[in-house]
Amino acid sequence: MSRVITYDELKAHTQKEDLYILIDAKVYNVSKFLDEHPGGDEVIIGESGHDATDAFEDVGHSDEARALLDGLYIGDFDKDSGLEIKSSTASAQASRLASAQAQQSSSNTLYLVPLAFLGGYFAWRYYTAV
Ligand code: HEM
């Protein structure tokens, strides 16, 4: 059964035999998984008590690793309990959007460069023709 886990609860479960991990607004009980983790138990223990979304995403975990999360899920994180959390999906979307916009604006300004030269050339022709 899923429940809502507060920041205080998250901070109360940081021991190896009773360990909660917060990833993407969801909370997972990883105590039983620690010994199986290919990256070792230390890295996961180090991510307890706070938002582990960036640490989890930075490793570039596989789809298989993500599928394992389903079996460890215990509930959603209470977003109003004092910890500002990240959403990997939202931040990934934001960075994709930002890079698309950057590309668009750079191509917009790039096409002005030959136009400026053309303008300069005709201005030069106009003033030197007399
Ligand atoms: C509790 C959720 C987690 C699960 C289910 C999980 C699962 C896995 C799995 C299955 C792998 C093998 C490679 C792959 O399939 O991607 C892996 C590798 C790894 N994980 Fe995690 N992981 C979790 C959390 C974390 C966290 C919080 C960290 C913190 C930095 C971390 C760090 C690593 C590292 C460094 C490797 C690479 C190990 C190597 O290739 O030597 N993992 N993890």
UniProtKB/TrEMBL annotation:
It is a single-pass membrane protein. One of its GO terms (cellular component) is endoplasmic reticulum membrane. It is found in: Endoplasmic reticulum membrane; Microsome membrane. Keywords: Electron transport, Endoplasmic reticulum, Heme, Iron, Membrane, Metal-binding, Microsome, Transmembrane, Transport. This is Cytochrome b5. InterPro entries: Cyt_B5-like_heme/steroid-bd, Cyt_B5-like_heme/steroid_sf, Cyt_B5_heme-BS, Cytochrome_b5. Residues 2-78 form the Cytochrome b5 heme-binding domain. It comes from Cylindrobasidium torrendii FP15055 ss-10. Belongs to the cytochrome b5 family. The keyword ATP-binding does not apply. Its main location: endoplasmic reticulum. It holds the Pfam family Cyt-b5. GO terms for molecular function: heme binding; metal ion binding. It comes from the Eukaryota. SUPFAM superfamilies: Cytochrome b5-like heme/steroid binding domain (SSF55856).
